[in-house]
Design goal:
Elements (H helix, E strand, L loop, with lengths): L9 E6 L3 H10 L4 E6 L6 H9 L6 H9 L5 H8 L14 H13 L2 H11 L5 E4 L5 E7 L4 E3 L1 H4 L6 E8 L12 H6 L3 E4 L4 H9 L2 H9 L3 E5 L3 E3 L8 H12 L6 E5 L16 E4 L4 H6 L3 E5 L2 E4 L2 E4 L1 H16 L1
Parallel strand pairs: 1-2, 1-7, 2-3, 7-8, 8-10, 10-12
Antiparallel strand pairs: 4-5, 4-6, 9-11, 13-14
Helix pairs in contact: 1-3, 1-13, 5-6
């Protein structure tokens, strides 16, 4: 049951991957004015194939966000998320939703317009914007001076990352934020980053200069939801403070106000390492390091164990976000 208040807090969630929909589903169950800003730098799997074949922004993360904020019947959701089997030749591994987004993007001339139309069709509560209206390429410069281009290739390198940056995939123009993205950030009561892959889901959005500057300058509460597990080729051996240090180094300012940290221990040998092969060990805690970065720390049991995987408990996280937003703004 939704709780209605005098004014819905405006909450902007920035990221990508599988962590973002968990938080969005929780926010949707509350009375929030939601805007999701989604990375368009994914170049792997079905999204990567479609972005190169049809010349569109990658649809996968946008598809998952559409479903998270939609109230369409379960059968429609299952159809939208259905992925063809590997033996289905040229349709192999493509999801129906990705194909629909690709078709609408071609029909309307842009992924931005396709998502706006689908948001109406799917009864989406809130706004969904790609970070940029152009597909972006993510580049990583490693500590040894090596550079790798392509989001799907970065983690495979297994080297320590110095920094990442984005370029337009199809031209040499400077990457620009999509329509209404900056306005949404400027009008927000709260900006939420994550949970999600630090270098390949969160930073690609912030590396669009307009978005990074808007998040750095906002008067809204900026909250980072720290990952529970380290990720192979990205955050190996990272503490929670290391995540914040990387974000602050990329934007060259200490812009994170509050960090949500899970303190519940993941049971030993619980993880299904075949299904979740990118996750390594639980992120270690460095509360002094977080405070040195100027962050308020909220540590609690945010853990949800499901199907051999480790996730954030969306209800618990959203409950904490609402305490923060109403404490900060009202």
């Amino acid at each position: 049951m939704k709780t209605y208040r005098i004014r819905k807090p405006k909450i902007v969630v920035i990221g990508g991957g599988t962590g973002l929909p968990v938080i969005l589903k929780g926010l949707r169950s509350e009375s929030a004015d939601i805007t999701a800003i989604v990375t368009v730098a994914d170049d792997g799997g079905s999204s990567g194939t479609l972005r190169s074949s049809v010349n569109i922004a990658p649809p996968g993360d946008l598809r998952n966000v559409l479903v998270a904020l939609s109230d369409m019947p379960q059968l429609y959701e299952d159809l939208f998320q259905y992925r063809f089997r590997e033996e289905d030749e040229f349709l192999a591994n493509h999801s129906v939703g990705n194909l629909i987004i690709a078709a609408l993007s071609e029909m309307k001339g842009s992924t931005y317009d396709a998502i706006r139309l689908l948001s109406t069709f799917m009864h989406v509560e809130g706004n969904i914007y790609p970070a940029s209206e152009e597909p972006l390429t993510l580049h990583a410069l490693f500590e040894d001076g090596m550079t790798v281009s392509g989001e799907s290739k970065i983690a495979k390198t297994r080297k320590k990352i110095n920094h990442v940056y984005v370029t337009n995939t199809n031209n040499t123009d400077k990457p620009k934020a999509a329509r209404k993205v900056i306005k949404a950030i400027e009008e927000a009561d709260m900006i939420v980053l994550g949970p999600g892959s630090l270098y390949t889901s969160i930073l690609p959005n912030l590396m669009v200069q307009e978005i990074g500057e808007a998040v750095s300058k906002t008067e809204a509460e900026v909250v980072y939801i720290c990952n529970i597990m380290t990720q192979k080729g990205e955050t190996e051996h990272f503490s929670d403070a290391n995540h914040i240090q990387v974000l602050h180094q990329h934007l060259k300012t200490k812009f994170i106000d509050t960090v949500l940290v899970n303190t519940e221990k993941v049971p030993e040998n619980y993880m299904d390492t075949k299904t979740y092969d990118e996750y390594l060990v639980q992120v270690i805690h460095d509360f002094k390091g977080l405070r040195d970065e100027g962050c308020r720390v909220i540590s609690a049991d945010f853990l949800e164990l499901r199907n051999g995987g480790v996730f954030h408990d969306g209800e618990k996280v959203v409950e904490e976000l609402f305490r923060l937003v109403f404490g900060a703004k009202y």
